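Workshop exercise sheet. Pairs work together: one partner reads the sequence aloud, the other fills in the structure field after running the prediction. Swap roles for the next sheet.
Pair: D.N. / O.F.
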Amino acid sequence: MKAAVFHAPHRPLEVTDVPTPEPGAGEVLLRVAACGMCHTDLHYLDHGVKTFKTPPLILGHEISGAIAELGAGVTGWAVGEPVLVPAVLSCGHCHYCRAGRENLCEQLVMLGNNVDGGYAEYVTVRASELIRVPEDIPLDRACVIADAVSTPYHAVKHRGRVRPGDAVVVVGCGGVGLNVVQCAALAGGRVVALDLNDARLTIARDLGAAATLNPQTVERPDRAVRELTGGGADVAFEVVGSPATIRLGLSLLRKGGRLCVVGYCAEDVSLSLARIMYYEQEIVGSLGCGAGTYPEILRLVQAGRIRLEPIVSGMVPLADINAGFDRLRRGEGVRWAVTP
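Structure field:
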């Protein structure tokens, strides 16, 4: 089969022939329909963040596809069924899995990181991890639900705990940030979206933001946000992953506010604990999404309450994946999907 193989940072992916994997007991072989292109992969490609599996490795963790073959012992599934694969796979029996927090599993496995992922024609996955995709949701759009939609949904509902009427500020309107915007608006928040890209801010308004702000256009973004929100955010989401934007997110909170950190930042960040104590503010992290939440998200997509069309900017053939990552680096579009 054809696959895009990662060998080392600062090198393009190598699109080449590799052996087609065979499903083991309890596994299925999926023919990949689409795999979303994520900034997480740029951490490996451009920033030297190490993958758990030593390269060579097939990246890609937002996978939709159809079952091509059943491994031994697999029941309840049929060849040809359309499915979605959660971006992170859990063991199902540790303390966190039993508590419904599969995203914190003690044996967490991430596709395209711990094991080969979806920038390939085929991938093997445990059948117990699969999520059925309704026939009326196109597979080439459904792939982004695996991360770019599910991660924000978990962040808004379970970590940020947005309630109707909350003033919500979203710092960063990339693929994940824009879905934080639409999920927070769906939860009843009055959303203010911040980004340096005006085109992204236009999409944010289309997805439910009540107001938008380009921080470069004002001297004091914190003051501008306080004016827009009537005193500051009840909940702010940081969806960039830099010390500056994390500090900005904290500065946007009102007393008693909550900062939810969704963006990945490998650097140490200096914050004022005196401010957090004195104003009774909170900082919480948010990682991925538990598998049990996916059916709920799919129902909202079916009902049109979560929209995929503004998020998926277009398709990239596997042969052109490196050009697709150049688009991602330049900030073109929102989310691109590789179609092997």
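Discussion prompt: The chain has two domains: 2-146+289-339, 150-285. What would you look at next?
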